C-alpha cells in the first residue's frame, strides 16, 4: 500500500484512539453512584478524581518508553494498565471481589489515569512524525476527539445498560481502550517518509475538518433533550459510530485516486507521464523540504533542564494551570454540581459538556489551518509540542493537571462540605450554595490565566517576528 494512504490511515487510527482514551472525562456520570457504593465523603470522592489526574505525574515514563520501545508495545502497555486499573474496580463494584479498601481503589484509579499517558504519547509521536510540516493542525485536530470520549461512553451505556450505569461505565473504561487499541495498532505506526505534497495535504486536512466539524455538530444536537426524546439511544449510538468511521473516506479516496493515476499511466502515457511525474515529485519534494526547513527554523529544541529555566515555559505552565486544569476540575465535579441543583439526567449534561469541549479543543487548530498562510500566529503550544525530546517534555508540562486537581478540587470539596453542613460526611449538599463560592473562585483563577496568556502571547509574538 502506498505511503500516502498509510499516512492518512495512521491519522484515522489516532482519531479512534483519542476518541476513547478520555476515560477520566466520564467520571461525573457515575461519581454519585460510586460515592454511594463506596460510602465515602465528598472529600474522599475528590481524592479519587485527583488519583486519576495524579497518574499523569508519571507520564514521563511513557515518553522514555517511546524512545526505546516499539510504539505498538507502548500502546499495549497503556491499554493493559487501564484494563487492570478499571477492571479490578469493576469486579469490586459487581461484588465479584469482596475485600477492596478505599486506598486500593485509589491506587487502581491512579494506575488507570497513568494508562492515558501511554496511549496519548503514541498518538503524539506518530502524528508529529507522519505529518511534521502540518503537525500543529494534525495534533490539534486529533486531540479534539478526546473531548468526545464522555459523549461516546455515555451513548454506549444509555443504549446497552441504562439501569446500571456505574458498573457499565467502569467496564467500558477497562475494555474499550484495549479493543480499539488492538484495531488501531496496525494503523498507528511511523511511516518511513512524508510523501504527501503540501497541496494534497491541505486538501486532505480540509476534508478532515469538514468531517470533524460535522461530527461535533451531531454530538451537540444529539445531546439536546428535544432530540434525545425523539431518537432512541441505539439510534444516537449508531450515528456517533458512523461519524467516527467517516475519516476513512480520506485514505480511501487517496487510494482510489492513486489506482486511477497508475492505470492511466500504463494505458496511455506510460513512459512520458512517468518522466513528468518524477520531475513534478522532485519539485514538490524540494518545495516541501524548503517549507520544513523554514518551519524548523522557528523552533527551539531544548531539553527538560533548560526548559524549566525559561520564563515562557512557566508562563505556559500557569496558563494551563489556571485555564484547562480548572476546566478539568469542573468536569470532575460536574456530577455533584448537577446533583446539587436537582438535575436527574446527569449523563445528558456530561454528553453536552463533552460535545462543546470537543469544539473548544478543535478551534485553535482550525484557526491555524485557515490563517497560517496569511499571517504568522504565535503558537506557544506548538513550540512546546515540537521540543526535543517532545514525548518527555510534554508530560512535564501536563504535570500541572494533578497539582491543580488537588488544589482546586480539594477546596471545592471543603466548600461543599461546609455549605452542606455535612456533619455526617455522607450527607448530600443540595442547593445553589454548594458550589456558588467555588464558581467565584474558579472564575477568578480563569481570569488570571487569561492575563498570563496575553503576556505569553506578547512575548512569543516578538520571538516569531524576529525569526520571520
Automatic annotation (TrEMBL):
* Location relative to the cell: Membrane
Q: Where is the signal peptide?
A: 1-22
Positions of the NFD4 C-terminal domain: 295-390
Which UniProt key words apply to this protein? Answer: Membrane, Signal, Transmembrane, Transmembrane helix
Q: Where is the Nodulin-like domain?
A: 7-251
**How does the protein associate with the membrane?**
Multi-pass membrane protein
Give the UniProt entry's GO cellular component terms.
membrane
Q: Does the keyword Iron-sulfur apply?
A: no
Q: Does the keyword Signal apply?
A: yes
Q: Where are the transmembrane segments?
A: 67-93, 105-127, 168-188, 200-221, 233-254, 313-331, 351-371, 392-416, 439-458
PANTHER family linked: MAJOR FACILITATOR SUPERFAMILY PROTEIN, UNCHARACTERIZED NODULIN-LIKE PROTEIN
* Name the UniProt record assigns to this protein: Protein NUCLEAR FUSION DEFECTIVE 4 isoform B
Question: What organism does this protein naturally occur in?
Answer: Glycine soja (Wild soybean)
Amino acid at each position: 500500500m502506498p505511503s500516502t494512504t498509510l499516512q492518512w490511515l495512521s491519522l484515522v487510527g489516532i482519531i479512534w484512539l483519542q476518541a476513547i482514551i478520555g476515560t477520566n472525562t466520564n467520571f461525573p456520570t457515575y461519581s454519585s453512584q460510586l460515592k454511594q457504593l463506596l460510602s465515602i465523603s465528598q472529600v474522599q470522592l475528590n481524592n479519587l478524581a485527583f488519583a486519576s489526574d495524579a497518574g499523569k505525574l508519571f507520564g514521563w515514563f511513557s515518553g522514555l518508553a517511546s524512545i526505546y520501545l516499539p510504539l505498538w508495545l507502548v500502546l499495549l502497555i497503556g491499554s493493559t494498565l487501564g484494563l487492570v486499573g478499571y477492571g479490578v474496580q469493576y469486579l469490586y463494584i459487581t461484588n465479584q471481589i469482596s475485600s477492596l479498601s478505599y486506598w486500593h481503589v485509589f491506587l487502581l484509579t491512579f494506575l488507570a489515569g497513568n494508562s492515558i499517558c501511554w496511549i496519548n504519547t503514541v498518538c503524539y509521536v506518530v502524528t508529529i512524525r507522519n505529518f511534521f510540516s502540518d503537525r500543529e493542525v494534525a495534533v490539534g485536530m486529533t486531540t479534539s476527539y478526546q473531548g468526545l470520549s464522555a459523549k461516546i461512553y455515555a451513548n454506549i451505556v444509555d443504549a446497552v445498560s441504562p439501569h446500571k450505569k456505574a458498573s457499565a461505565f467502569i467496564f467500558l473504561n477497562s475494555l474499550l481502550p484495549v479493543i480499539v487499541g488492538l484495531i488501531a495498532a496496525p494503523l498507528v505506526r511511523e511511516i518511513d517518509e512524508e510523501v504527501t505534497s503540501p497541496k494534497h495535504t491541505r486538501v486532505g486536512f480540509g476534508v478532515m475538518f469538514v468531517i470533524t466539524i460535522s461530527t461535533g455538530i451531531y454530538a451537540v444536537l444529539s445531546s439536546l433533550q428535544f432530540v434525545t426524546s425523539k431518537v432512541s439511544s441505539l439510534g444516537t449510538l449508531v450515528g456517533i459510530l458512523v461519524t467516527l468511521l467517516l475519516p476513512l473516506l480520506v485514505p480511501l479516496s487517496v487510494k482510489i485516486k492513486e489506482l486511477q493515476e497508475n492505470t492511466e499511466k500504463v494505458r496511455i502515457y506510460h513512459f512520458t507521464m512517468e518522466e513528468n511525474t518524477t520531475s513534478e515529485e522532485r519539485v514538490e519534494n524540494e518545495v516541501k523540504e524548503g517549507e520544513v526547513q523554514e518551519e524548523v527554523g522557528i523552533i527551539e529544541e531544548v531539553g527538560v533542564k533548560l526548559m524549566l529555566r525559561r520564563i515562557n515555559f512557566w508562563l505556559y505552565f500557569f496558563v494551563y494551570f489556571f485555564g484547562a486544569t480548572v476546566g478539568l476540575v469542573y468536569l470532575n465535579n460536574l456530577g455533584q454540581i448537577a446533583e446539587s441543583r436537582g438535575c436527574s439526567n446527569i449523563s445528558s449534561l456530561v454528553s453536552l459538556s463533552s460535545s462543546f469541549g470537543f469544539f473548544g479543543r478543535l478551534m485553535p487548530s482550525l484557526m491555524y489551518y485557515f490563517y497560517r498562510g496569511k499571517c504568522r500566529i504565535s503558537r506557544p503550544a506548538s513550540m512546546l509540542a515540537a521540543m526535543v525530546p517532545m514525548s518527555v517534555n510534554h508530560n512535564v508540562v501536563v504535570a500541572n493537571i494533578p497539582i491543580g486537581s488537588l488544589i482546586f478540587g480539594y477546596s471545592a470539596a471543603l466548600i461543599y462540605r461546609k455549605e452542606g453542613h455535612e456533619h455526617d460526611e455522607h450527607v448530600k449538599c443540595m442547593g445553589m450554595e454548594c458550589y456558588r463560592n467555588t464558581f467565584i473562585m474558579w472564575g477568578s483563577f480563569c481570569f488570571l490565566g487569561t492575563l498570563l496568556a496575553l503576556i505569553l502571547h506578547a512575548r512569543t509574538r516578538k520571538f516569531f517576528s524576529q525569526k520571520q
